[in-house]
Amino acid sequence: MSSGNDDLPNRHPSPYFLGFPRFAWRDFRAISLWPFLEQAYFCGRPTWSTTQIPDLAGKVVIVTGGNTGVGMHTAKALLEHNAKVYIACRNQQKAEVTITELHSMTGKHASFLKLDLANLHSVREATKEFIRCILSSCKENRLDILFNNGGVMATPMEELSAGYDLQFYTNVLGHFYLTTLLLPTLLSTSKTNQDGKARVVNTASSAHYVARADPLNFDTFIDGGARWKYTTEDMYCQSKFANIVFSNELARRYGDHGIVSTSLNPGNLKTNLSGHVIHWPKKLFLALLQIYPAEWGALTQLWAGTSPEGAEFNGKFLIPWAREGKARKETEDVQLGRELWTWMEEQVAKLI
């Protein structure tokens, strides 16, 4: 883990130059620019489609952030193939609108699960409510697929949650706690499935390729001097890098027990994920990157979560559109995976 200091933010020079993050030479050397560009502009058209999803009758699925964007299209395809779908998100009103729209499109009802990933108490209550829901509906206590899809991007550095960086808390720590609370249900479900598997699909991003040379600076996860040397873009890249590191560590710890943990880049998509960006140069830059329809972004995670071959994707990183790829090599660092897991366990113990 990196060690920083607790200097006040205003003692540091601006981490931006002309509105974009400053990079040291070692950071430029560390990034993997070609896969970032290849997955942005040279993906081609999808060759796998939702028509190839098998019948999911009897399967129970949670999709975090399922009320909008990629999550909504993921939920739609799952409903079309007869899965029982829980849309887990913070805003019930928005979720109910999405559930109504999905019903009009599929003829199937999704269920709402109140979940604020930036609040571990909310995560715990969501898990309890999920267990109550599946028991009260006389279903077997099961969870076949967990899509860790929700997230935020480029939130202002002033936005925190309990003193933690909002992006890291939401994108990584919240999903870590949700997953670990649901592990007993996932593990028991795997024993009832024909392939002996239950799946956890972790949505990362091509942004992890352009994380800094120190891709997980633990001192920046909590507000302080080290964090204020970084930009909101740095924090997003770190969070997406951490999604992959967590996914790989989950695969190592539970792959032999029936859990298939997969991470992926959904693609550069036209969604509202960048709604926090207000400066026009960044808006223009993102507009040049966000070029594919949101429904394409659901394909890779649906492939991971539902296809027969997906049962063999434990520890793998997938890229657009429904292809195997390679994440940045540091994501495979076993020691880093252990450190991140331990750090998150420690934070959960402090916050709960």
UniProtKB/TrEMBL annotation:
<dbReference type="GO" id="GO:0016491">
    <property type="term" value="F:oxidoreductase activity"/>
</dbReference>
<comment type="similarity">
    <text>Belongs to the short-chain dehydrogenases/reductases (SDR) family.</text>
</comment>
<dbReference type="InterPro" id="IPR002347">
    <property type="entry name" value="SDR_fam"/>
</dbReference>
<keyword id="KW-0521">NADP</keyword>
<keyword id="KW-0560">Oxidoreductase</keyword>
<dbReference type="Pfam" id="PF00106">
    <property type="entry name" value="adh_short"/>
</dbReference>
<protein>
    <recommendedName>
        <fullName>NAD(P)-binding protein</fullName>
    </recommendedName>
</protein>
<dbReference type="InterPro" id="IPR036291">
    <property type="entry name" value="NAD(P)-bd_dom_sf"/>
</dbReference>
